[in-house]
Structure formats: structure tokens, C-alpha cells
Amino acid sequence: MWPQHISTRKRRVFVVGSLNADHRVRVAGIPKPGETIVGSGVRVAAGGKGANQAVAAARAGAPTRIVGLLGEDADGEVIRRALAVEFVDTSHLHIVTSAPTGRAMITVDDTGENTIVVSPGANSELTPDAVAAGLDGIGPGDHLLLQLETPMSLVLYAARTAHDAGATVVVNAAPVPDTVHDLFTLTDLLVINEHELARIAELLECDGIRDLEHDISEVARASGATVICTAGNAGAYVWIGDHAAHFEAPVVSAVDTTAAGDTFIGYLAAALAADPDNLSGAVEHAVRAASITVTRPGAIDSVPLLSEISAAALRNHP
């Protein structure tokens, strides 16, 4: 059920995606191939791109529903407890006994950079019927957030369902697939980082050298989607018309960049649900939110509240 304080007649954010238990270790530096290093003790917390983005959209003020699967295990309980205190509709979050909860093994170094290896677990068990039930009622003005930590067949099914219903389909193409299939024909907003942008440009057989502004223009042309590239402490770039508009990020001291992209996407969708004609404003809002996320450790734990974004904006623009 949608949280009682929210009217379902408002534009909503739906998330079909992964829920993982993040097993995080801090290290002095990311290990090189073949290198063994000593890190901190393992910290387990709720995460996964789907869960992170759903929490970000909800904390940004949008009525938000997540559709996904957990295993019947301790990792699943960590995620259930974390989502229980959020204003997220979890009525389409189900438990399966056929697979463990998804797990992400994360190393974070002293500069806040990270490496992540995901074992999908229960995320791979999601079915079309579960997706159809979770997207029941989606329509114009609503936004669907998709990532690629769930099977591509399910991502395509969800995208097609939302597209046919007139909703806005937002795809975070991470991790980058081996082939884009028909995904981009159903995508309205494509949100990717610099590494993903370069790889997708190759998959789409875009011409020319690998350069951010060139790649973003070529991917926008080839995909037909509005392309947004997040660029860490450089902020974000959006291909608008005939140029890449740059949105600078506030200068902060990064501690952990794990959920920065997910925070950006959740806040972006919530802002667009509130004001669909203000893409530039939504991107600026999302960049500010992500800049707060990187100053904190963890995934869901690091996602800021909407009140914090407003307070940060006032400090920067007295």
C-alpha cells in the first residue's frame, strides 16, 4: 500500500530493481590485480541500486513503490528493517526461498572511491507477473526507474509496460550490458556515468574518438533518449539540443561514493515528477543531493533528506 500520508493521485515513482546486502570493507587503496591487502572489519547494510534509488526518491518527497525480491535470510532481514522506516511502498517486495538475497562486495578506499562486485541472488528470480502486478496503475506523469542488476528480459518487460502506459522510463544502464537489445527504444532518460557512457558509445557503434561531449552527443543521437552523464566531483552533463550542458557539483570532501549515482537518480525522478518541464532544475537538485551523499559512508544510510538539500542550498546562496 502507498504510505497513508501520500495521495496516489500525485505523480509517482516506481522502481523495478535490485535489493542487495552491502558487505563493505574500507581499505587504504583499491587492490591491484593479484594483490592482497588488509582492510577493516566487514560492515553489512542495506543497498542495491533499486533499493537505493527508491529510498532517494521517497526522501526527495515522491510517492515511491519498489518491486523486487529478497531471500529468506539474514541479509534480507537487514534490508526489510531498513525499508520499514522509509516512506516507500513495499507491498510488491516479496520473499523467495529459492535463492539468497542479493549481495554486493564493496571495497572503499581513503579517497572515497570504490569497487563493487554484485552477486544477484534473488534479484534474478523476479518474474513478469510480479513486475506486472507492481506496475499496475502506472500512467502518464509517473516515472519508472530501471537498472541492470536484474535480468535484461525483466528490464525490457518493465520498460515496455511503463512505456505503453505513457509513463516516463528512466534507465540507469549499470552495469553496462553486453548488448543494448531493444532497451533504448523504450528509454526516455538514460542516466550513466563516464565509464558507462564510453562503453555504451562503443556498443552503439558511435563514430569518432572517445571524448565525453562527443560520446554524449552520439549516444543521444543513436538512442533517441535524453542522456545524462554523472561525472563525480565534476557534477553532471546533459545533452540539450545541440550541446552538453554542464551542472557543477559543490566542493566537498568525499568519504564514500557508493550511492552517489543512485541518490542522483532518485532525486532527479522525484523532481521531474513534481515539475516535468524543468529538467535543468531537476539535474541541479540531484547534483546537490549526490554531493551530500558522498560525504557519508554507506548506501541507503548516506542518502540525504529533502530538508538537508534545502539547507545546503541556503548555505551556498545566502
Largest beta-sheet details: 9 strands, mixed
Report how far the terminal alpha carbons are from each other.
Answer: 40 Å
- Helix residue percentage: 25-40%
Number of strands: 13
- What count of helical segments does DSSP give? 9
Task: Tell me the series of helices and strands, N- to C-terminal.
Answer: EEEHEHEEEHEHEEHHEEEHHH
Give the C-alpha Rg. 18 Å
Mean pLDDT: 91
Taken as a percent bin, the fraction of beta residues is 15-25%
Per the principal axes of the C-alpha atoms, what is the gross shape? Answer: globular
Find the structural class using helix and strand composition.
alpha/beta
User: What is the strand arrangement across the widest sheet?
Assistant: 5-4-1-8-9-10-11-12-13
Q: In terms of per-residue confidence, which ranges show pLDDT below 50 for 5 or more consecutive residues?
A: 4-8
